[in-house]
């Protein structure tokens, strides 16, 4: 994917703060954990424990809070399978899947600008 | 800009958590204010007061902290002009400018998924 053109850059530059699309997106991707949850679910539905392990063990409360917020915003669904013990699975909605463009731009920037120690 | 292809999607899906580019980007764009500061500076260098007004008046401490962190990460520069009173101007570095791809993806997603009240 090539870099954005001058037209898109101008659009970004002239967008007013009020109701800007960037702020709308920040209401969803409002922090590190939220963004990483979406990244993890892009590879497919996952259970709570799988997510927690993949994300480097955030506290159960932190992960629960973020998952609830994302469910409320219709970015993911939470499905309970009536097994013993019950199995709870999180998966992205279509809207959640569409965040892959944002995540991919972040992936690309991060890979092109590795952290330096100096 | 069209949506990402299946190849890029696969890349995103198979990237390991460890040292992922997404996490690197999140070390820079680590919150709402930081992201909005970069968005504001994409339209050109700005003074502290201009930034504060444009962002809807975050506290001076919050804005100062975020600006220092971004300066430390070489996303922006802080230039003091020896006038009376001194004029302090913040501008994006080349690395900071390159975040426009990420910001544009966020802008686009936000515009395509407006907040609904239901």
Short summary of the structure?
Chain A has 118 residues and is mainly α.
What attributes characterize this protein structure?
3-stranded antiparallel sheet; Arc Repressor Mutant, subunit A; homodimer; mainly alpha; 3 strands
Question: What does this molecule look like?
Answer:
Chain A is mostly helical and 118 residues long. Chain A has one domain: Orthogonal Bundle (Arc Repressor Mutant, subunit A), CATH 1.10.10.10. Helix content of chain A is 54%, strand content 12%. Chain A has seven helices and three strands. Chain A has a three-stranded antiparallel sheet with strand order 1-3-2. In chain A, strand 2 and strand 3 form a beta hairpin.
Task: Give the helices and strands, then pairings.
The structure is a homodimer of 118-residue chains.
Chain A: H1 6-14, H2 21-28, H3 32-41, E1 46-47, H4 48-54, H5 60-72, E2 76-81, E3 87-92, H6 94-97, H7 100-112
Antiparallel strand pairs in A: 1-3, 2-3
């Amino acid at each position: 994917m090539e870099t954005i053109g001058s037209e898109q850059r101008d659009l970004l530059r002239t967008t007013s703060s009020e109701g800007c699309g960037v702020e709308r997106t920040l209401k969803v991707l409002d922090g590190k954990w939220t963004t990483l949850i979406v990244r993890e679910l892009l590879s497919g539905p996952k259970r709570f424990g799988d997510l927690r392990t993949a994300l480097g063990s955030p506290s159960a409360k932190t992960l629960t809070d973020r998952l609830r917020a994302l469910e409320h915003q219709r970015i993911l669904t939470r499905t309970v399978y009536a097994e013993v013990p019950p199995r709870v699975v999180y998966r992205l909605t279509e809207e959640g899947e569409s965040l892959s463009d944002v995540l991919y731009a972040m992936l690309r920037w991060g890979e092109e600008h590795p952290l330096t120690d100096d």
